[in-house]
Amino acid sequence: MKVKKIGMADLGALKAPGILTTLGLGSCVGIALYDTVNQIAGLAHIMLPSSKEIRNNKNKAKFADTAIDILVDEMIKLGAKKNNIRAKIAGGSQMFSFNIKNDILKIGERNVEATKKKLRDLNIEIVAEDTGGNYGRTIELDAKDGSLCVKTIGHGSKVI
Amino acid sequence: MKVSIDNLNSMLLDVLKELGNIGAGNAATALAKMINKKVDMKVPKIKILDFKDVPDILGGEEKPVVGIYFQMNGDIKGNIMLVLDVGSARNLVDIMFNTRTNREKFDEMELSALSEVGNILSASYVNSLSTLINLDLKISVPSISIDMAGAILSVPAVQFGQVGDKVLFIETEFQEDEKQVLGDLFLIPNMESFETILKQLGVIENEG
Asked: How far is CA B147 from the centre of its chain?
């Protein structure tokens, strides 16, 4: 089966049979979109919540607010229908912690919030999520049924 | 022209290499003092990579690595992260405790020792930088995490992601006897501090 790897600040879509995967999500969020009727899936690996807060925002796949629009477009190009698209999200953990307040450390939490807001704005339902914590995740999205496998080191693996 | 990580000139790279050299030299000396043994070091390499290529240097996104992370305060604000592959971290612990184990897991005592070495190594770099640019710098207590390389490296990547699309770091290799320790040090000044450093180094002119 075809396996397409999505890197950091990257996105991609494909038609079944095939798997989209992104490895070692930390504070980044993996946004898995799928249309089971047309068996088309898309995956984005975003790093930051908003393109509006950053001067250098050329790479649209880097931000929650811009990546999801592009991902939906790519899926529609492959034959997906907007109304069929559902979402599952994973990641957004806090790998390090300090006693002192620091916004950059909360970036995982902010990435998850921004992702949820954007999906809500687009009327895309979030069916499942595995977010937060202080550990990394690898995810695999099956384009056929939209099942999302989440693997970790020392925190088990599961399918959501 | 606005200077950023994406368009560093060769002069700045030379300056950073020199900083890496002095920093690693000081770090090797500090480490040698601590363990009371001779520590050799190789000339550090300065690397600038795209986000997606960074985990490859550590053996792939899913390979477990040790990350030791600090906050930088004073005239320059930002973070420092020292990343060791698990083998190097084990060698480092063995060098310190004069043991020879092959365990992949680390106990509390060993984690605390690793944090302390991370502290000494990072402080050596920060002191070199502080002297070189003549600014006051301090680092916080360390926070340590062992997890997938991709997840650990997402932390500096996200911070660099706010200033550009590339990551800059210093690769250092220490050796004591036959035990090798390969470490990558990520120096991550925040946006304003990055410009402060470049100005202090004379790489960019003071504007207006």
From this structure: 17
Contact criterion met (CB below 8 Å) for A43 and B189 = no
Q: Does B171 touch chain A (CB under 8 A)?
A: no
Contact B154 A48 (CB under 8 A): no
Give domain A2-159's CATH architecture. 2-Layer Sandwich (3.30)
User: A25 and B150 in contact by Cβ < 8 A?
Assistant: yes
How many structural domains comprise chain B? Answer: 1
Q: For the segment B64-80, what is each residue's pLDDT rounded down to a tens digit?
A: 999 999 888 888 888 88
| pTM > 0.95: yes or no | no
CATH of residue B148: 3.40.1550.10
Those residues with Cβ within 8 angstroms of residue A134's Cβ, 6 or more apart along the chain or in another chain: A93, A94, A95, A97, B145
Q: Which residue blocks in B51-107 are alpha helix, DSSP H?
A: 86-97
Return the number of CB contacts < 8 Å for A and B: 111
Q: Do B165 and A59 touch (CB under 8 A)?
A: yes
Interface predicted TM-score (ipTM) = 0.85
A91 Ramachandran zone, left/alpha/beta (phi>0; psi -120 to 50)? left
Say which of A13, A20, A28, A72 is annotated catalytic: A28
